[in-house]
């Protein structure tokens, strides 16, 4: 069945460094890839998303890249800050599917 | 964020009891979803609804039931048939015009604990 694998499960970086989280998906029909940030005990919030007709998207310190051939997509956070510490989830879905498959999450720690 | 609410925030249930989790949205969204989140895992889809009076099973629907009598409301009932119901439950909604690829907005969640 459909699957999204996310790595690493835990990531610790020094403030100011970059963080990269990688995901792979199995369903070649997937064409929408959102990323969510979830702080402890709170709801997931969309931070950036990308559609399959785009290879890269950037929003200030956050960027997402998509390689459809390899079925890989990645989240890049530059100049990390302590408030970036949270769990990040990647997800994949497709038009008409109504089923979003989530990765298991990456717990990011940004050390001051 | 304030457009989708869930209640209660915490819920305790004795084994063998059914409980109903509330989800309301004032975003005028057609689509609504229920997810379950367990520690160290991603979100798993329980049920979703594309429109009023219609809903579909997700990946882990066994032991759960839903209704969609109003556009704004999508309550989830956790029945006694659900063997391991202790989890964090998240409701979400989306516009519904790009089926499956709309941005989903989440409620604050309900943490259910079975005693």
Description:
The complex is a heterodimer of chains A (112) and B (115). Chain A contains no helices and eleven strands. Chain A is mainly β. In chain A, the strands form two sheets. In chain A, strands 2, 4, 5, 9, 10 and 11 form a six-stranded mixed sheet that branches. A five-stranded antiparallel sheet of chain A has the order 1-3-8-7-6, with no helix packed on it. In chain A, a hairpin with a 6-residue loop joins strand 4 (32-38) and strand 5 (45-51). Chain A starts with a strand and ends with a strand. Chain B is mostly beta strands and 115 residues long. Chain B has no helices and eleven strands. In chain B, the strands form two sheets. In chain B, strands 2, 4, 5, 6, 9, 10 and 11 form a seven-stranded mixed sheet that branches. In chain B, strands 1-3-8-7 form a four-stranded antiparallel sheet, with no helix packed on it. The relative contact order of chain B is 0.32. The chains are: A mainly beta (112), B mainly beta (115). Chain A binds chain B through residues 4, 6, 9, 31-32, 34, 36, 42-46, 49, 51, 89, 91, 93-100, 102-105, and chain B through 1, 31, 40-45, 48, 50, 56, 58-59, 90, 98-101, 103-109.
List keywords for this structure.
heterodimer; A: mainly beta; B: 115 residues; mainly beta; seven-stranded mixed β-sheet; 0% helix; globular
């Amino acid at each position: 069945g459909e699957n999204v694998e996310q790595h690493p499960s835990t990531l610790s970086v020094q403030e100011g460094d970059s963080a990269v989280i990688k995901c792979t998906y199995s369903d070649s029909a997937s064409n929408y890839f959102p990323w969510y940030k979830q702080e402890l005990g709170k709801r997931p919030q969309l931070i950036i998303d990308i559609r399959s007709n785009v290879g890269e998207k950037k929003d200030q310190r956050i960027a997402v890249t998509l390689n459809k051939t390899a079925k890989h997509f990645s989240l890049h956070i530059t100049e990390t800050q302590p408030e970036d510490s949270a769990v990040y989830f990647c997800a994949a879905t497709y038009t008409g599917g109504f089923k979003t498959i989530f990765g298991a999450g990456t717990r990011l720690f940004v050390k001051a | 964020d304030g457009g989708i609410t869930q209640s209660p925030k915490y819920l305790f249930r004795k084994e063998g009891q059914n409980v109903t989790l509330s989800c309301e949205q004032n975003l005028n969204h057609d689509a609504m979803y229920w997810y379950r989140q367990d520690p160290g895992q991603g979100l798993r889809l329980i049920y979703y609804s594309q429109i009023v009076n219609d809903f579909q099973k997700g990946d882990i629907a066994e032991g759960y039931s839903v209704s969609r009598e109003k556009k704004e409301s999508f309550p989830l009932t956790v029945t006694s048939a659900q063997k391991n119901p202790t989890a964090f439950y998240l409701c979400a909604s989306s516009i519904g015009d790009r089926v499956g690829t709309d941005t989903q907005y989440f409620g604050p969640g309900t943490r259910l604990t079975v005693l």
